Amino acid sequence: MSRTCELTGKSPLSGHRVSHSNRKTNRRFLPNLLNVTLISDALGRSFKLRISANALKTVDHRGGFDAFLMKAKDDELSPKVRNLKHEIKKKQAS
After folding, report:
1. Which of 26, 32, 88, 92 is most buried, with most CB under 10 Å away?
2. What's the domain range around 85?
3. Could you tell me the mean pLDDT of each successive run of 10 residues in the chain, 94 residues long?
4. Which helix (H) or strand (E) holds 66?
């Protein structure tokens, strides 16, 4: 399982751990990923996703999972979530 957020595309970054003597060694900054179940109002189903805590706050702020997906860019979403977005668009169009 990759350490990438399925909604925002956040992934590990690299940087330096800096000691008191200012010696720099490599380290990784990992995203704060959570396993959550989000409910789609349009489809009437729930989906298990691995998303960052920041994405969870954004979903809540934008008014739910469906509203988040409608505003999200396709290149940031995982293939699984991209398919969900297209299903929701079809359902809302009809």
Report:
1. 88
2. 13-93
3. 91 97 98 96 95 96 94 93 94 89
4. helix 65-71
